[in-house]
Every structure is written in C-alpha cells, then in structure tokens.
Amino acid sequence: MSLDHNKIELIMRLRAEGVRDTRVLEAIEKVPRESFLPDHLQDQAYADHALPIECGQTISQPFLVGLMTHQLNLTDRTKVLEVGTGSGYQAAVLSHVCRRVYTIERFHSLAKQADERFRQLARRNITTMTGDGTKGWPAQAPFERIIVTAAAMDKVPPALIEQLAVGGEMIIPVEYAPGRQELRRIVRTDEGFETERLLPVRFVPLIEGVAKDA
Ligand code: SAH
C-alpha cells in the first residue's frame, strides 16, 4: 500500500475518532510524517501509534498530535511554545495552524536534526533551541499557548506557568501516580488558573536539565 493511501486512511480514522477540526486535519495531511522517522520505520509512517526515534525517545501517536493541536485552539495569529521537540513532527503540524512555534529539546542531536527537517520542508516559522524546557523560553515569553509533549512528574514546571500569558492555555501530560498519566489543559485567567482533565495518555518523562549527548 502506498504512503499516500495510508495517509488518507489515517486522516479518515482521526476524523472518526473525534479530530474534526478541518485546519488540523489539513495540517496533518500537509506534513510528511515519514520525513520525521528513521529509515527502517518508513513503512509505518501513517500507522496510528507512537514510534521510537533516536536518543530513546518517541514520535507521538498521530491521534494525539491531532487532538493536542485541536485542543490548543490556535489561530494564525498565535505564538506557541512547544517543550519536547523530539522528531519535530508535532512542531511541523503546529506550524501550519499558528503564526510562530518556539520549540525546545534537551537532546542537542534531536534539536539539530529537527531543525534540518524544518529547513528542508520550508517551515520558516519554527525556531528550535537545545535547552531545558522546564525553564521555558524567558526571552520569548509570555506565550499565548504552551504544549508539552513529555509527561511532567506530578507537578507542572512553575516557569511554564509563569510564562503563560493571561488568557493563555497550556496542554500538558501529567503523571499523577506511578504509571498513570493524563492530559490536562491549564487556562490562565485574570484571577488565577483553571485545570481541566482531558484523557489518559502515555508520554516519555519530562526530565530537567540538558541531556549529555555529543
Ligand atoms: N513532539 C515530539 C515528541 C517527542 S517525545 C514529536 O513530535 O516527535 C518528548 C521529547 O521531550 C523527547 O525528545 C525528550 O527528549 C524531550 N524532553 C524531555 N524533557 C525535556 C525537557 N526538560 N526539555 C526539553 N525537552 C525535553
């Protein structure tokens, strides 16, 4: 079966599972997921599951990429911070439905590889940085939207909460008990913060500090 055919099947499946936002589905259609995968996994590019990438990390499941992008309520004027660049796939999808994406990865080799992919695909509205995403990106704060694609252990990093604009929203997986994670939306209002629990998920952990890869 060709990759194009598999991609159409995947998009129909995401729609059936509840990702009905046309802009998000169009973004998923535009981004070649195979470009974000190692060579030996090319044939699985449009299967709806997470896959292993370099540095022991994962590329997120397409359904979750679609759902999280939809849940962020983006417009073409929004500036987004992503924590956990990984392969770069989620950032590439975001870049089609918002104004600008700032993405941070703790493995330098992953950040560099993702940045090269963005260049090859002419995604000019993505800025990539190697760093500790639990500290956010102070020079670019505040952010109207923040998406974290690694699971916070129990507690949402305070720097990310501080860097959320008033009226802003954050989507973040939180491990609230051993092996139990849920996706949460945190909204910053004039008075404080509101938290909404979305669905059970499984992400690699959010780890403090920059990784020691070459
Ligand atoms: N959005 C990615 C998913 C990658 S998995 C994609 O579409 O492929 C989560 C990523 O978060 C991993 O690459 C991991 O190294 C990274 N990560 C974990 N803790 C981090 C931190 N404190 N700062 C930045 N990146 C982090």
Q: Helices, strands, pairings?
A:
Elements: H1 3-16, H2 22-30, E1 51-52, E2 58-59, H3 62-71, E3 79-83, H4 89-95, E4 100-105, H5 108-120, E5 126-130, E6 143-148, E7 152-153, H6 158-162, E8 164-177, E9 180-188, E10 193-201
Parallel strand pairs: 3-4, 3-6, 4-5, 6-8, 7-8
Antiparallel strand pairs: 1-2, 8-9, 9-10
Helix pairs in contact: 2-4
S-adenosyl-L-homocysteine binds next to β2, α4 and β4.
CATH superfamily heading of the domain at 64-201: Vaccinia Virus protein VP39
- CATH C-level label of the domain at 64-201: Alpha Beta
Terminal CA distance: 38 Å
Strand content: 25-35%
* Shape by Cα distribution: globular
As a percent range, the share of helical residues equals 25-40%
Uncertain segments: none
Care to describe what's here?
- The radius of gyration is 16 Å and the shape is globular.
- Helix 2 crosses helix 4.
- It has 214 residues and is an alpha/beta fold.
- The strands form two sheets. Strands 3, 4, 5, 6, 7, 8, 9 and 10 form an eight-stranded mixed sheet that branches. Strands 1-2 form a two-stranded antiparallel ribbon.
- The protein has a domain of 138 residues: 3-Layer(aba) Sandwich (Rossmann fold).
- The chain has six helices and ten strands.
- The site of S-adenosyl-L-homocysteine has 24 residues, from strand 2, helix 4 and strand 4.
What's the gist of this structure?
The chain has 214 residues and is an alpha/beta fold.
Labels describing this entry:
Rossmann fold; 214 residues; two-stranded antiparallel sheet; alpha/beta
